[in-house]
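Need residues for this backbone.
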């Protein structure tokens, strides 16, 4: 969730989210959470790009 917010807002970086995950969780748990956060971040970035492309195509 936080990674999606990071992607949408630009207020925090994905690297900061990853650092927080590493600080909070053990290696095994952190690894899974980092993978999920990275996927969520990229998904939101892709959706924003897709939406912007759609807006310019209809302009």
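Answer:
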């Amino acid at each position: 969730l936080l990674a999606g917010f990071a992607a949408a807002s630009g207020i925090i970086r994905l690297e900061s989210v990853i650092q927080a995950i590493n600080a909070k969780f053990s290696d095994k748990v952190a690894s899974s959470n980092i993978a999920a956060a990275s996927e969520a971040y990229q998904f939101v970035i892709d959706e924003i790009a897709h939406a912007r492309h759609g807006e310019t195509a209809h302009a």
